[in-house]
Amino acid sequence: MWAKYKIENKQTYLWHIGNFRFYIKRLEKEFLLAKFEEDLILNFEHEVLKHEKTPDTLVWKNYIADKTTSLNILPALPDKPLVIKTHEELYILPGRNTTIYVRIPLSLNFYAGAETEDNLITSEPSIMLSNTWFGDPDNGVPAYSLNSSVLYKTDDLQIRSFEIICPVKIINDSSQSFKLERLLLDVDHLKIYQGKQGLATNEVKIHFEGENNSSHTQFGRLAPGFISEPKLLIKERNTSNSSVLKKSFHFLKSGISY
Amino acid sequence: MEKIESFLSNIDLIKIRNVFLTIVIGYIILQAVLLLIRKVLAKRLSLQWKMLLNKGIVYAGIIIILLMVLETMGVSLKALLGAAGIAGVVIGFASQTSVGNIISGLFLVTEKPFEIGDLIKVGDKMGSVYSIDLLSVKLKTLDNLLIRIPNQTLISTEITNVTRFPIRRMDIVVGVAYKEDLKRVMEILKQLAVENVNVLNEPEPLILLKDFGESSIDILYGLWFEKSNYLVVRNSMIQAIKETFDREGIEIPFPHRTIYTGEVTKPYPVVVKDDK
Q1: N- or C-end of chain A: fewer Cβ atoms within 10 A?
Q2: Contact A142 B166 (CB under 8 A)
Q3: What is the arithmetic mean of pLDDT over A110-129?
Q4: Which CATH number fits domain B167-248: 3.40.1400.10, 3.30.1460.10, 3.30.70.100, 3.30.1340.30?
Q5: Taking CA atoms, what residue in B is nearest to A134?
Q6: How many angstroms separate the CA atoms of B249 and B269, rounded?
Q7: Can you point out the beta strands (E) in chain A?
Q8: Which residue of A has its CA nearest to B197?
Q9: pLDDT tens for residues A124-135?
Q10: Where are the domains positioned within chain A?
């Protein structure tokens, strides 16, 4: 999947991942890209379209590039932080910690030639994520919402083609019991590793220091332990070791509803 | 010919050169000061302060250059200042409104109820703030008209800043017929908000059974969205509500009157006469 594809002039390639079919056509110096939303598929599929007709409803976008025949496709993390909500009520007692594994739907970065920033054609999500807001309406941050995408253990972990697993260790450093309601994950500090089982990121450690205090986030420098033969595929977008987002947890205040 | 000769002999070339140099050097110094201010204060000051400071420096600079030019030309500044004193009293009376506007402008810039680019509502006028000047604020309306509002008017009027905060709530009043199952209607509305990617999941949409209206039960449907997505959210949600209600057989009633015979259970007696 994450490879260099050779596309001849006037040839059309099709990739099917997550909720989308991506059609890419090359015309001399141009790459034309269109996408089509449909049912979720678990495995990645791709093929060269020979004589099949592409759907009439496709809206093509034209990208002027060099006269290159190669198209590089690499995974990427979403362009905004993610808000994670767990379905089950999760409490962490004072001084204790736990690790949750977040399933992050990946985006695809299409490059005309080598994977440099100026060759990036476009970045497209494999699954359409809902927008949400983290924090108070006057000083929060825009984010994407992830529901029910959390695992508590990695036994028999099946990493699907359109997702990246991110291990998040939550440490309760406060003197009170901590109920995880919603968690903000800053994806700019995450690296992507390719393992035998699939894609995963470095570990995120979040220290909870009380409801009224800012949490402290650290990002691991190594590949996670639950994937075998990890290979660094994508570097982090932000190289600092701690998050710029001041808050990682948000608690809903009751009584302000109208 | 004599007249021309006498005119030419009266021209003092050195004075002309000095006036020219005063204007050129003054202009260069003024531009340098403006550039320096822009560079030093670029990050510290808001756009409004920068605009006001820029105008203040330009006006002060022009007055100073003008005075220097007059002095170079041999015009007595003492006499000029004396005349300016008398003129000042006259102008002062005449420009009370302008001074009021300038002071109101300073208050507005200090209080910062809006910034350049904000969408604001003043009375029945709505537009984005185009410029904040010494005497007035200019708004560009949504249909591309320019409105000038004096600062004094703004300081004494209620202003609504529509785009101050990054997210907003859009309130749509949805009316459904009295016969409808309200629980089901509320579930459908909740689902519609979840399905629209531009409607924020949090803060959660507000669904409030608002009123027993004249022809319908009115539901207040409040959807949170990022301020730049207003049009997309409004169009897509109203379209989705209409389509879903039509598909689910939920009636959106229009105002109607039912005429009773005096008893709820009895229909109004209608007799159809055959004229043939």
Answers
A1: C
A2: yes
A3: 89
A4: 3.30.70.100
A5: B202
A6: 29
A7: 4-6, 12-27, 30-49, 61-64, 70-76, 82-92, 97-105, 107-112, 120-125, 130-134, 141-147, 150-151, 163-172, 178-185, 192-194, 199-201, 204-208, 216-219, 231-234
A8: A130
A9: 999 988 899 988
A10: 4-72, 75-250
Segments making up each domain of chain B, as ranges: 8-94, 109-161, 167-248
Residue B77 CB neighbours (<10 A) = 12
Contact A137 B200 (CB under 8 A): no
Phi, psi (deg, nearest 5) at residue A26: -115, 130
The hierarchical CATH code for the domain B109-161 is 2.30.30.60
- Interface residues on B facing A, Cβ-Cβ cutoff 8 A: 165-167, 194, 197-203, 206, 208, 224, 226
User: Residue holding tokens 């989308």?
Assistant: A20
How many CB atoms within 10 Å of residue B245?
19
Chain A residues within an 8 Å CB radius of B202: 83, 132-134, 145, 182
pTM of the model: 0.72
CA-based nearest distance A219→chain B, Å: 26
CA distance B245 to B242: 5
Structure tokens at A226: 């639950």
| 3-state DSSP assignment of residue A86 | strand
pLDDT digits (tens, 9 = 90+) for A153-183: 777 778 888 899 999 999 999 888 888 888 8
ipTM of the complex: 0.72
- Say if residue B131 is exposed, middle or buried (CB neighbours under 10 Å; 0-12, 13-18, 19+): middle
Q: How far apart are CA B22 and CA B18, in angstroms?
A: 6
